[in-house]
Amino acid sequence: MKKPEFINEMVKEAKRIVDTRSLMLITVVVPPILFFLFAYIYQSALVRQIPISIIDHDNSVISRTAITSFGASPSFTIKTYYASLEEAKAGLISGEVDGIVFIPKNFERDIKKRRQVHPVIFANGINVIKSNYIMSDATKIFKMISGGVLLKKFRSSGMTETQAMEIINPVRYDFQTLYNSNYSYVDFLVPSLCVFVIFMSLSLAGATVFNHEKIDAGVLTSQIKFPVGSVFGRLLPYVLISAADAMVMIGLIFPIFSITMRGSAFELMLFTFIFGITSVLLGMVVSAIIKNLMMATQVILFFTTPAFVFSGLTYPIWAMPGTHQIFANMIPYTHFLDGFIRIYLMGESLGELGMPLNLLVGGTLISFGLLVLILKFQSVWHLRKVGAKV
Fold it and tell me: Pick the residue with more confidence: 187 or 170?
């Protein structure tokens, strides 16, 4: 009994993956390694122990209290003390420290006389993450010191602590950060990088499917008679790889590195699996159109490499120029990442995703149908060109 066409194509494509070292590396070997590497790099979750220097021109009790507060903060480590601002700035330029705390002369005296004081914080703005941490935590420390001094002064004048606090802090507000409350990079960044690896590896692999072999009459005839089977068969090995990637990421990386999972692990795995298929089909469409293997992979790299930047994860899409927004919304990774985060970090179900799920499923079906039509059209055209019967 003759095997179905899709079985023949599946076996042929699976054999090609195993026999082609570069293809085996980018699809099977490298992705899990990168998953563990990214998780290991960011396993500390938070930015801690930022090296800072202190310039204390006051040498008072309150200035030493401020220095102690900076030293006790988990965000900072006091690397050195400088005598002048010029020396401290040289340390900043050399990379010895990332921040400078400058406490001016008469700091304590002016505070006690209710004069405004001006300590200065210098932060290395080249790294936005570290400079934001320095600004945020330094602000908290000086607010705490200022409040403590005023509280002591008001209490000494006969006020109760409650009365003093109402003057010091007349507006009390609650600030609640939802979903990633401790600003953890292992929750925020690692899963996004892992699925980006899936997107890149499977798209690149897909870009080699239909342009690696010499076209003959047998192949063309097969693609005309069994276009769906030809596409489906070549897709199946990558379907299995996509499922394996999703299981490694969600079944191993998430629990081993304690990544937050608020939604359904099964639904997240299913959604990631669909995205993997979409990624392969994107590459397969390019490989069907561009018959030069090198050119096809370059086109895919041009399209997929900036996907992380355009995803909206590190910079909001709405703040991008109009043309950049259009390009961002053309990339499947953008819409997938939105739904992916909403499932694992925000706890939504697959059915609640709406647009991201619809776009992903729709894109998969359209890509598959388009691929079938392209192959059939190209096969008919090639056979007619050489004068063979269809």
Answer: 187
